[in-house]
Write a structure and sequence with these properties.
Layout (H helix, E strand, L loop, with lengths): L9 H26 L10 H19 L3 E4 L2 E3 L4 H8 L1 H19 L7 H26 L4 H30 L6 H33 L37 H16 L11 H9 L26 H44 L1
Antiparallel strand pairs: 1-2
Helix pairs in contact: 1-4, 1-5, 1-10, 2-3, 2-4, 2-8, 2-10, 3-4, 3-5, 3-6, 3-7, 4-5, 4-10, 5-6, 6-7, 7-9, 8-10
């Protein structure tokens, strides 16, 4: 659903750019809370979650290279907002998808640069907010068990994709550059993206379920799902548990597995992805929305169209581009979240110093 340059006029592109910038600013503040501090008392400290958030961004980048067929001549790919929000939190999820979209636009000429605000508002903000709000409602309504997280993730991801299609239709109604009846755009966009949502839901549920099976403590959306075990005296009073001083479990194994999976998807499996146009491309072509599409500003990039320039073998070229993309997204994403973590730590230290001074 990457919107290219030329679909949306300049005023609305600027407006969505402002919305996207505000959302990213708010998410940076929200991510500080989601990452917690580095205090030993915090079981979800930033030391643990910053690398995981970078990995989630890299995994979403890799998964978005895998277009899957959904109808005759149409394909879809993961948007990733629901997956990121459930794994690392909604604010961090917005940042993850924003990093992915930035890397795709700047390095791979995927998604227009003037449409970056449109894409972040639609694919990062709308999908994350809608999916996580629905996910939390479902988790509260369903039995407090681990399978409920997977079920809620499936439904939330499914709904997030047609929600993004509705958001694009609204943006197009406000600033579309071609005269196409909005009713037809809405019907076509929502219809095909409901089908794409099924693929999104399956990928999201499988990934969340896999992480829940081995490290449920790392799934942001599962926090507080299981009530702590209570030990009682003979008279029924609850024994106060001692605060554990054990070091938190290492993330090394899941980080290694996740990175290997992302590299395999981008470097090898992506070669077998569907070559059919995705939902937006298909609707844009059928309805004439793409008649004013402009060439991408970095169309001559060495990595444009997910191919390494001057590498003749298509399989090797695409695989190398995918691996480079995973590495660049991992580095950029981790860098952002390390900065967020450090700013949180400095704020905590300053607050602690003020308390001690008093």
């Amino acid at each position: 659903m990457h919107v290219p340059d030329g679909f949306i006029d300049a005023p609305v592109s600027l407006a969505t750019g402002a919305v996207a910038a505000a959302a990213v600013a708010v998410s940076l503040r929200g991510a500080r809370r989601e990452h917690g501090g580095t205090s030993h008392a915090s079981s979800y400290g930033g030391e643990r979650t910053a690398p995981l958030a970078g990995l989630v961004a890299a995994f979403v980048f890799a998964a978005q290279m895998l277009n899957f067929p959904v109808a005759a001549g149409t394909s879809g790919h993961l948007l990733g907002g629901a997956l990121a929000a459930i794994l690392v939190g909604p604010a961090t999820g917005v940042l993850c998808i924003s990093v992915v979209l930035l890397m795709q636009g700047v390095l791979f000429a995927d998604g227009g640069l003037t449409a970056l605000g449109v894409n972040i508002s639609d694919m990062a903000v709308v999908t994350t907010v809608v999916s996580y709000a629905l996910f939390r409602l479902l988790v509260k309504a369903l039995p407090r068990r681990r399978p409920s997280v997977t079920v809620a993730a499936f439904v939330a991801a499914l709904v997030s994709v047609p929600a993004a299609a509705c958001a694009f239709t609204l943006i197009y109604a406000l600033g579309g550059t071609t005269d196409v009846p909005i009713g037809k755009v809405f019907t076509a966009m929502v219809g095909v993206h409901v089908l794409i949502g099924l693929g999104e839901a399956a990928i999201t549920a499988l990934t969340v379920g896999a992480v829940m099976a081995v490290r449920p403590d790392l799934v942001h959306g599962a926090r507080g799902l299981a009530r702590p075990l209570e030990l009682r005296n003979a008279d029924g009073t609850v024994l106060q548990p001692q605060v554990s001083t054990a070091a938190p479990r290492s993330n090394r194994r899941i980080m290694t597995v996740g990175l290997v999976a992302a590299l395999a998807l981008a470097g090898f499996v992506s070669y077998y992805a569907s070559t059919s146009p995705d939902g937006l491309e298909k609707v844009a072509h059928d309805k004439g929305i793409d008649s004013k599409e402009r060439e991408h500003a970095v169309k001559d990039s060495p990595l444009a169209d997910y191919q390494v320039k001057d590498v003749d073998d298509e399989r090797i070229s695409g695989g190398l581009a995918g691996v480079i993309g995973v590495g660049a997204t991992l580095a950029a994403g981790t860098g952002v979240f390390v900065v967020v973590r450090r700013r949180r730590d400095r704020a905590e230290t300053a607050a602690s110093d003020r308390i001690e001074a008093v």
